[in-house]
Amino acid sequence: MATGFWKDNPAELLRVRKGFDLRTVDPDATPGTKKGREAGEDELEESAQELRELQEKLYAQSKVGGQLRMLVVLQAMDAAGKGGIVNHVFSHVEPYGLALTSFKAPTAEERAHDFLWRIEPHVPGPGMIGVFDRSHYEDVLIQRVRSFAPPGEIERRYGAISDFEKRIWDKGVKIVKIMLHISPQEQEKRLLARLDNPEKHWKYNTGDLNERLLWPAYMDAFQIAIERTHTEFAPWFVVPANAKWYARAAVQRIVISELSAMDLQWPVGDFDVERERQRVAQSADLRWP
Amino acid sequence: MATGFWKDNPAELLRVRKGFDLRTVDPDATPGTKKGREAGEDELEESAQELRELQEKLYAQSKVGGQLRMLVVLQAMDAAGKGGIVNHVFSHVEPYGLALTSFKAPTAEERAHDFLWRIEPHVPGPGMIGVFDRSHYEDVLIQRVRSFAPPGEIERRYGAISDFEKRIWDKGVKIVKIMLHISPQEQEKRLLARLDNPEKHWKYNTGDLNERLLWPAYMDAFQIAIERTHTEFAPWFVVPANAKWYARAAVQRIVISELSAMDLQWPVGDFDVERERQRVAQSADLRWP
User: Fold this and answer.
1) What confidence tens digit (pLDDT) does each residue in B44-84 have?
2) Chain A with chain B: Cβ pairs closer than 8 A
3) From A46, A69, B189, B198, which residue has the greatest number of CB atoms within 10 Å?
4) Three-state DSSP class for A174?
5) Contact B280 A192 (CB under 8 A)
6) Is the ipTM of this complex over 0.90?
7) What angle do the packed helices B184-196 and A273-282 form, to 10 degrees?
8) From the list B92, B202, B277, which residue is nearest A267 (CB)?
């Protein structure tokens, strides 16, 4: 905010409201700012310190028994920029305070359990910012679109997700759920760009195209998932993501806003500072070798 | 190297050699460069991209079955700057490719097992840079100094560590062990600085002073640990660390050198690029909503 990049706060503008309709979200839009790419990249750099200080406070309070922590859920179609968010927004928080989990297609063992079984161990501990690259929402997105689970089971999961999110929220987890929203045309450009650059071929997955062809079904599944699981304690934010610089700056600002709302304070030491100074001074003649 | 900051490579200069004597290492020295703080901080920034590209290649090769990975072990007296190394050197690698583990005093369950039991699950997987903030070396450092284990058991551990390190090296783990070496006078300054800044009080631990008073015994334990576990496949580097800017730039350059020696290549895609371009083109008329 300090740099004047944001006219309005994306944490308010992009937060899902009653009556939300994904079809009305323009992936090319840049709500909250009238500025362009260069200014957006500057904003990302300049606000990194603000994010880092908040994250350090979050981490610090846990060292004196505080229970607060954050969980950021990232969901999107392929090539929408989840990786870029991790590498350009969350790389600016201290590695000590970041717990990143990438959820892949479930293993046979994971499939033999309830869908939340593999999620639970990755709920962030006190002081941490947990980031889920994909998440339990895959179980109502690809699983719905591909009919990997029967309709009744998919139906059950929306409620189970909200119960789970309420349960961890009660333990001090601030939940921020983000959908990066790109257009199929933008995805096409990005997939072709990957194919054009041999250094990016390892990121290209021939299976992604199959999901691409199911775009309308995925958008329906996102709409329903957002409607059914958007709550006061676990809100969704839908971020237009055709412009990478916008999506990154917006996610950074959403995270900063949500951390700021936690009213974090530097913990007060539980020791006598003067006495400790004296103890250090007593060892001032220590020499080695 | 590109910036001319390094006259000689610290990966060579700081690598432990036969006949190594910790008493001859000056914590104030800056081997390999004649430049100062400002140039050192520039070097750290400017070489971050070099580190990131190597790390990305390391990560990429694992996606096509490569087994290579790196383990960086950080050991030091309190306030020597381990945290700064993590936050200023390793924060520049992609979060996806970094696995940081901080080892604390062992729990009752951990103490009931062999000392390597809690280490094994944190050996980095293919493509990852694992960083240990403290490690299995605590089991021959504080445990030796404090007699937490009988002498015969400590004695056994040196060999067990080398067996363990050889075993994981055989699986593709490049091991880099770093001791940050500060003087007791420098530690005193840093502890007092923590006491002077209320925002840093949460980092201050009254117990640290007890270890400080055992400085000579710790230096003996480091000397012995380094002698007994420095091997071709798991070398030690002793980094003068009174100047933070030097220690950070030196560790960054050591990691870059060791990654470079792995001769990493971008993996070649296992798909037909032209056919994939056509498949993407076939879906070019996809529109939503």
Assistant:
1) 999 999 999 999 999 999 998 999 999 999 999 999 999 99
2) 146
3) A69
4) strand
5) yes
6) yes
7) 170
8) B202
